[in-house]
Amino acid sequence: MQKISAIRGMNDMLPSQSAAWLHLERALSDLTRAYGYEAIRTPIVESTALFQRGIGEVTDIVEKEMYSFEDRLNGEQLTLRPEGTAAIVRAVIEHNLIYEGPKRLWYTGPMFRHERPQRGRYRQFHQFGIEALGFAGPDIDAEIILMGQRLWDELGLKGVRLEINSLGQADERAAHRSALVSYFTQYQSQLDEDSRRRLQSNPLRILDSKNPAMQSLIEGAPKLLEFLGKESLQHFETLQSLLKANNIPFKINPRLVRGLDYYNLSVFEWITDALGAQGTIAGGGRYDPLIERMGGKPAPACGWAMGMERVIELMGISESLPETEPVCDVYVLHQGGETLTQALIAAESLRSAGVDVILHCPPDGQSSSFKSQMKKADASGAQLALIIGPDELARQEGQLKDLRGTGEQRAIPLAGLLSAVIDALVDR
Ligand code: ATP
Ligand code: MG
Known about the structure:
Blueprint: H1 15-34, E1 38-39, E2 45-47, H2 48-55, H3 60-65, E3 68-70, E4 77-80, H4 85-94, E5 103-112, E6 124-133, H5 138-155, E7 161-166, H6 170-186, H7 193-201, H8 215-219, H9 230-245, E8 251-252, E9 264-271, E10 280-286, H10 290-293, E11 301-307, H11 308-317, E12 330-334, H12 337-352, E13 357-359, H13 370-380, E14 384-388, H14 390-394, E15 397-402, E16 409-413, H15 417-427
Parallel strand pairs: 1-5, 7-8, 12-13, 12-14
Antiparallel strand pairs: 2-4, 3-4, 5-6, 6-11, 7-9, 9-10, 10-11, 14-15, 15-16
Helix pairs in contact: 1-5, 2-4, 5-9
Bound molecules: adenosine-5'-triphosphate (ATP) and magnesium ion.
GO biological process, one term: histidyl-tRNA aminoacylation
Domain Aminoacyl-transfer RNA synthetases class-II family profile: 1-326
Keywords: Aminoacyl-tRNA synthetase, ATP-binding, Cytoplasm, Ligase, Nucleotide-binding, Protein biosynthesis
């Protein structure tokens, strides 16, 4: 029969990789608790209109990367979420979450973008992100950047650098925009197709182009920072001084504009050279206009999102992946029949006390020799093997074998099993 494979660009996360994911997830849970961020989970499928409005029509995501389809039953236009912010803002508005004051939120989960699969770029990938909603000052911009830095340190990532920029406010961008339009119009013949289209719809996005042929032209374009007014500059300068006061190194990159439409003031990215072309592990910024644009009462907000696959790959390169943990403490061997019944009871009583146990289950459903069971016990990484054969059972005993240290094996009464196991585990 022909095999069915996974969809291109959508990966299985195999047991051998799960220790790394668990490690990352634990670090994220510690991080969000340390800063008082609360979890939020939104559906994977949303109305297509949510992303068109929330991300912006003239973006890579909305123009060409969304998995959109029509609901066969009612004709609704739906999309697999390509990112987290739009849906969180929707939920915040729908449930009035910032009615009583600002909120610090975090989320994690799979995202979907129809991109060309390659290293660090998948069609289903996972993001962790934070959103701080209802805060206007640069203090919160600094806080969320500090969180990122703490996370990279905690995970032992090497070679991550921070780039920041300010996108100012809408009127400042408008002045910059007309300067950009005159500049790029002057060089229209050198523009690629995407940029020519964006020259009309969203000239700022030309600066985001990844086309190498466009880079020198972009280099010479008018810089937004030169168009910022007093308040925007003040916001940006306070952010910088808070980062400096906390010894966070950063570089100002005037060309950093980010792919999404809704950003204003601070934007930033964490980048590494260790991952090849897909070097951005996380990025974010302030998006004060978004909540109003999504139909809510105007409120400022900022946040960032990180690509978990890229971070895990960088953990590997930084040699900071956790060691694989053994899958259990005790492996229980038996000979079927009454010994199986007793082994199962013993395993359950140990589990009730918090001991991790694997019960030997022969693949063919028949009983197998103790020798082959012992090989399995060894491979499991367990500290102890508990052996219950017919002779032991007759005496209401088991044999407890130390698999890692001395290799000592001794008979113990089944009535005293738990304390014997705990003593042996503590001894190690
Ligand atoms: P890129 O410039 O690499 O396309 P982006 O600007 O589209 O990134 P964001 O929308 O800011 O990315 O998403 C935040 C993070 O999610 C990125 O910095 C990256 O680490 C990760 N990410 C984005 N797209 C993918 C993808 N297709 N596969 C894996 N990770 C991704
Ligand atoms: Mg992208």
